[in-house]
């Protein structure tokens, strides 16, 4: 599985610099927390790593290939789980998970199996047939993560994956993210939550766009 590397990566919105130039390397098997207060630049970093926004400067590569845009990043196996979950509200939980797999060419029976496994992993095996709009915010967040797990990402970028969850489900999600890393993925999680951050291999703290290592990746 490929390494995720950023060189001099920076993000700006007009005159506002949301992320100061940052160098970062995350190896397959590593789970990194990006912590920091609201507005620190965590989402901006994740979106830039996933090529979901154009950086003000610098570059991102996956397995040595320079990422050009979101479509290219997706083709390299880079999956972004946005904070707002990004699910289709008029589809069921299972449909939200299976449709992108079918679109990506996963055979139907494999996709169905992965969907069931992913729903079980997030504790929603009973909710596959529920419409997204019928689920709570925390359940929707778990479906969004299940969709990412079913996609078998090479690089998984999860924005605040535990923000709407109770303690038991937070533990379950952090364990599932850990399992993704153990499968060999690069996993980066933005979080406000010190208890979730403490369970990772490294913690990069952002404050007003400036990154400081709390615990460096080794
Ligand atoms: N589309 C945008 N246009 C202009 N400014 C933006 C935009 N998105 C973010 N910002 C600003 O960039 C800075 C960093 O925002 P970002 O969303 O990356 O922070 P964050 O750490 O993820 O915050 P939160 O924890 O609240 O999600 C903030 O000052 C924010 O107001």
Automatic annotation (TrEMBL):
<dbReference type="InterPro" id="IPR027417">
    <property type="entry name" value="P-loop_NTPase"/>
</dbReference>
<dbReference type="InterPro" id="IPR015854">
    <property type="entry name" value="ABC_transpr_LolD-like"/>
</dbReference>
<keyword id="KW-0067">ATP-binding</keyword>
<protein>
    <submittedName>
        <fullName>ATP-binding cassette domain-containing protein</fullName>
    </submittedName>
</protein>
<dbReference type="GO" id="GO:0005524">
    <property type="term" value="F:ATP binding"/>
</dbReference>
<dbReference type="InterPro" id="IPR003593">
    <property type="entry name" value="AAA+_ATPase"/>
</dbReference>
<dbReference type="Pfam" id="PF00005">
    <property type="entry name" value="ABC_tran"/>
</dbReference>
<keyword id="KW-0547">Nucleotide-binding</keyword>
<feature type="domain" description="ABC transporter">
    <location>
        <begin position="4"/>
        <end position="218"/>
    </location>
</feature>
<dbReference type="InterPro" id="IPR003439">
    <property type="entry name" value="ABC_transporter-like_ATP-bd"/>
</dbReference>
<dbReference type="InterPro" id="IPR017871">
    <property type="entry name" value="ABC_transporter-like_CS"/>
</dbReference>
